[in-house]
Amino acid sequence: MMTLVFVVCAYLLGSVSFAVLMSKAFGLADPRTYGSGNPGATNVLRSGKKIAAALTLLGDAAKGWIAVVLAIMFGAHSAQGVTTIALVALAVFLGHLFPVFLKFKGGKGVATALGVLLALNVWLGLAALGTWLVIALVFRLSSLAALVASIGVPVYAMVLGLPREWVLASAIMSLLLIWRHKSNIQNLLAGKESRIGSKKTAQ
């Protein structure tokens, strides 16, 4: 029962969209109405309001981190603690992808996944972040950076010797991240993907 409570709460927390909240707070257009239409930090950045994008990034990462940290603090000592933590990690991530508050149409989950990974293991999170930063700085393509980092995460988790449940959870998140970037993959192949910092375009 406690595991179910943790999972449901994590999903609801993940469903909170900081892209929408920050856009409203700063008087910006709904991020679902311009650019990629994705309620995430990269798309909010296209509004030109860097502080709103930064707060969106922090908020989305924080909810992933908080959900997993609370599961570790209060559920790690139970008989199924490791499994509970893995399920909570997936639940908060799925909440961001399919938020109940936005008719199940959410973001792509990069920031939330980062928060989850940092909570599971700080070195895992830093490895993913480092991979993202290197690719993003070189190519200025957020989607490409996310895809490369996603591929690396399960490998990093195994190298760090994390519990198999956590390795599996990270692999599932990676697959979902890649799936959520399917349109970006098509744009990358066609050379049409928007670069980091590009302005919004009307739709």
UniProtKB/TrEMBL annotation:
The keyword Nucleotide-binding is annotated on this UniProt entry: no
EC number of this enzyme: 2.3.1.275
Topological type in the membrane: Multi-pass membrane protein
Keyword Endoplasmic reticulum set for record: no
Pathway(s) annotated for this protein in UniProt: Lipid metabolism; phospholipid metabolism
Gene Ontology CC terms: plasma membrane
UniProt-listed InterPro entries: G3P_acylTferase_PlsY (IPR003811)
EC category name: transferase
Keywords: Acyltransferase, Cell membrane, Lipid biosynthesis, Lipid metabolism, Membrane, Phospholipid biosynthesis, Phospholipid metabolism, Transferase, Transmembrane, Transmembrane helix
First-listed, main subcellular location of the protein, grouped into a coarse class: membrane
Domain of life: Bacteria
Gene Ontology biological process: phospholipid biosynthetic process
Gene Ontology molecular function terms on file: acyl-phosphate glycerol-3-phosphate acyltransferase activity
Record field: transmembrane: 51-74, 81-102, 114-134, 141-160
Described function: Catalyzes the transfer of an acyl group from acyl-phosphate (acyl-PO(4)) to glycerol-3-phosphate (G3P) to form lysophosphatidic acid (LPA). This enzyme utilizes acyl-phosphate as fatty acyl donor, but not acyl-CoA or acyl-ACP.
UniProt family annotation: Belongs to the PlsY family.
Assembly behavior: Probably interacts with PlsX.
Protein name from the UniProt record: Glycerol-3-phosphate acyltransferase
Organism: Ferrigenium kumadai
